[in-house]
Amino acid sequence: MGIANMFISASATLEEEIRPSAAGENLRFLTVGTMDFWATWRCLRRHKIITITKQDLLAHEQVAPEEFNTSSKKMCARLFKHFGYNRYEEMDINARADVVWNLNDPITPNLMENYDFVLNVSGQYAMNAIQSYWNTLQMVKMGGKLMVQTHLGDMTNRFYLNPSPDFLIEFYTANGFILEKAILQNRLGFSMPYESVKTKVTFLSTLIPLRYFLVYYLQQILRDIPLRMEITRKRRLQKKEDASEINSSVGEHPRREDLKIQLKNRLGEQGFQKLKKWVCTYERFRSRLNMPISPDWVVWCVFRKVERVENPRFQLLKTYRDHQVATLKKEPATAGTMR
User: Fold this and answer.
1) Which residues contact residue 208 at a Cβ distance below 8 angstroms, ignoring those fewer than 6 apart?
2) Percentage of residues in the chain having pLDDT higher than 70
3) 263 and 124 both lie in a single domain
4) Percent of the chain, pLDDT > 90?
5) Do both 126 and 194 map to the same domain?
6) Is the pLDDT of residue 196 over 80?
7) pTM for this structure?
8) Residue 332 lies in a domain
9) What is the pLDDT of residue 9?
């Protein structure tokens, strides 16, 4: 997972809701997922993030690959300090995290009501979805806040279970939280209030503004073309019987080696290593900013905890609840009987 321009724009829009309800000296911020930091200086400056300087970002962009994770964590800590939280931690299944935990499993008592803010951007990766979301709300202190996202559009197989915005809103509000604000946002930074549509089925095209309608579908088509070409290429390679031919097709190109030798002769070993580091940094950030796995549209929700709930509360989809209420009003004597 990563903190990129899309999140910076969303957090700026939701800044009032993200900030703690009361000031404090040891306010704890937890992200569910280990974060890589990919935001650009232009985006940080536009949204007036004062806790990260241009020198901080330049130093982060130029770190060695093996130091990138540590540097990302420091940058995230600086970012959330801007919002009023001075202690930053991460939860994930890898050793890089401060709290190593599998969200499919119930959390231990020492984690309950331990954080003033929980940012949940990884809950949908767990197969045990209800337990995952239940874990996140249990970790929030009374009066604390929780921010969660869900992706809209065609993201098949990105997650086991990608929740609808209405599920998140109704699950958290049924289990001790109130909704502070929900927004619908695209990758360009445009955002608008999210409002639940009172229909049984909601298409993305009915949620996004009309001026983005054609752009969205054109982007989908343009993104699908290189992906389809890559899938086709891999299928052709798999059909080849000669394994050596496959291995040679993915090996180092001889011209690339010739270019390396010429650059080393001209720049010297030290100059070549500096150039290599710069190219790797550029490619790393360029690929992350343009990679097709991030969604075009996202719903962000910020909640505040107002009640302790011992066991999860579940309910039917709102469409059916409304129908049930209408049935009870019309036929109070026969509602609930077999027909």
Assistant:
1) 184, 186, 216, 297
2) 80
3) no
4) 50
5) yes
6) no
7) 0.76
8) no
9) 94
Q: Based on the domain organization, do 61 and 167 belong to the same domain?
A: yes
Taking a C-beta distance cutoff of 8 angstroms, is the pair 163, 149 a contact? no
| Same domain membership, residue 191 and residue 145 | yes
Tens of pLDDT along 261-316?
888 888 888 888 888 777 766 655 554 444 444 457 899 999 999 999 999 998 88
Do 186 and 248 reside in the same domain of the chain?
A: no
Selected residue with higher pLDDT from 303 and 331: 303
Residue 123: its pLDDT value, please? 84
The CATH number assigned to the domain holding 129 equals: 3.40.50.150
Instruction: Let me know whether 315 and 283 are in one domain.
Output: no
Domain enclosing residue 26, as ranges = 2-200+293-323
* Any domain includes 207: no
pLDDT tens column, 52-102: 999 999 999 999 888 999 999 999 999 999 999 999 999 999 999 999 999
3-state secondary structure the chain: CEECHHHHHHHHHCHHHHCCCCCCCCCEEEEECCCEECCCHHHHHHCCCCCCCHHHHHHHHCCCHHHHHHHHHHHHHHHHHHCCCCEEEEEECCCCCCEECCCCCCCCHHHCCCEEEEEECCHHHCCCHHHHHHHHHHCEEEEEEEEEEEEECCCCCCCCCCCCHHHHHHHHHHCCEEEEEEEEEECCCCEEECCCCCCCCCCHHHHCCHHHHHHHHHHHHHHHHHHHHHHHHHHHHHHCCCHHHHHHHCCCCHHHHHHHHHHHHHHHHHHHHHHHHHHHHHHHHHHHHHCCCCCCEEEEEEEEECCCCCCCCCCCCHHHHHHHHHHHHHCCCCCCCCC
Asked if residue 337 belongs to a domain, the reply is no
The number of distinct structural domains making up the chain is 2
d(CA 336, CA 331): 10
Whether 336 maps to a domain, the answer reads no
To the nearest whole number, what is the mean pLDDT of the chain? 83
Residues 299, 277 share a domain: no
